[in-house]
Amino acid sequence: MSGNRVPSIRYRxxxxxxxxxxxxLLKFSDYLGREGLEIKFVINPEKAxxxxxxxxxxxxxFSKLSGKIPQRVIEVLESEARKQNSVVLELEGxxxxxxxxxxxxxxxxxxxxxxxxxxxxRVFLVKPGMLSQLLERLSAMGITVIDRTGLxxxxxxxxxxxxxxxxxxxxxxxxxxxxxxxxxxVIALPTGSGKTVVGIAAIAxxxxxxxxxxxxxxxxxxxxxKIEELTSAPKHLVAPFYSEEKRLAPITVSTYQTAYRYxxxxxxxxxxxxxxxxxxxxxDKFKTIAxxxxxxxxxxxxxxxVREDGKHTELFPLMxxxxxxxxxxxxxxxxxxxxxxxxxxxxxxxxxERRRYEELKKVYKALAQxxxxxxxxxxxxxxxxxxxxxxxxxSELKQLxxxxxxxxxxxxxxxxxxLGSGSKILIFTQYVDQxxxxxxxxxxxxxxxxxxPKLRKRVLEEFKASPTGVLVITTVGDEGLDVPDVNVxxxxxxxxxxxQFVQRLGRLLRPKPGxxxxxxxxxxxxxxxxxxxxxxxKLSLDELVSSEKGEDLGLALTKSS
Length: 561
Fold this sequence. Notes:
Elements: E1 10-14, H1 19-25, E2 29-35, E3 38-43, H2 45-50, H3 55-64, H4 71-82, E4 86-92, E5 95-100, E6 116-118, E7 123-126, H5 131-140, E8 144-147, H6 169-180, E9 184-188, H7 195-206, E10 210-214, H8 217-230, E11 238-242, E12 245-246, E13 251-255, H9 256-261, H10 263-266, E14 272-275, H11 287-292, E15 297-302, H12 315-319, E16 322-325, H13 328-333, E17 340-347, H14 351-368, H15 373-381, H16 385-402, H17 405-419, E18 424-428, H18 432-442, E19 446-447, H19 453-465, E20 469-473, E21 488-491, H20 498-506, E22 517-524, H21 528-536, H22 541-546
Parallel strand pairs: 4-8, 9-15, 9-16, 10-13, 10-14, 11-13, 14-15, 17-22, 18-20, 18-21, 19-20, 21-22
Antiparallel strand pairs: 1-3, 2-3, 4-5, 5-7, 6-7, 11-12
Helix pairs in contact: 6-7, 7-8, 14-16, 15-16
GO molecular function, one term: ATP binding
Protein name: DNA 3'-5' helicase
Organism: Fervidicoccus fontis
């Protein structure tokens, strides 16, 4: 026990004590003898301090002896402790430890979700990523923090670096909003709007040791390349922490998977944390990164912050909330992104597909019995076989719609028309087999998650170098794919979420004189695809950000036909 000591208070214990309870009382009290059926003690502040007993620890012991110790003794202890009004902050292993020199009492409710009480060790534990929140709340309550961690408030770079690029007006606005929020928060900007540039400008302005988390290896390499291009940082100041090459530098770039596995090694080395594609962070294991990093300054970047599962709300305590956002349409109007058109192409199921579709719908309806999809999922996870069978039928229904043969005919027609106009086309699907089928039909290259890295690199380089052409991609291309002169996208199959749609649209919006981007959605008439496309266009970004339903970020499209 350190800092202010517990007060010396005489007290009596009624009845008999077990040897274990008696020995524990002696760790912070002196025995004064017996009087009738009562045992007399006095709290010894020196002994309590030596054995690590503060007010909270003594209250914990007294609570186990409920009824044997008069309530007025506990009240006196709490009253004396309130006068001390401070906590000691220490660092033990991967956690911060809070040792109250006072009775927290009802104030604990205001610290819920930030502190965790360890009954065995009789201390409060705080994850590194929650420390800033804790300090803010304690300060608001007028509680003094005695910092014994030895950690600096910030960790400066060994040399100042200059930002040599040029910020657009909205990028400057974003950094200003982030700084006004205590250098914490999420910046939501569309794909192609220069989120990476915002992060790099922030690094130069703060000049603090920085850990950047990228979602893919390609994005990791893009960050390093951009830092070298847009700052005066010498090469030795920047390093990847990934795969076989794990070098810690003042500016370190890692991936979600690697940072998650090495979080204890990274935890206290950086005072600025930048998380790219931050919508992935609330996933259970990736959340460990934000909770495990001490970094008091943190920035999240994403085109699509809000998640369908509602977990985007977890970003607010982890990263600081959404401090700035712009929709694609807003940046189109400012001339920073290419104007775009969304065109719905409807096809019908073949007679055989329609027959199978109606059969599956009937089976699904009987199995689901009116339950929503999430309820079926929950029941299946608990071992409900009927619910599991319903989900299996649902999956078959979805694939039947997504892989309708007439979609391929529509793809061929759109591609022929667009190639005739000299367009550069990305074709999006969820399924490897469908991607390969389309690639074979069009004689076009295909990229999937299993494409060997060297082949992937060669295919992308050839596609980028060509003024026109077609590339077929699965979800591997939803994030981190940068081909600036692509102007046409064709969605054959997707999740139906706004987030995925915005990501895919973003691949087309790099500005170019005279460019108008076109996104074709090929959907099956009279199915859930049609309903999803209609629903996705209803909400504006403002409505989505404030939505409690966990919908994905969307946008108002300029045109639909």
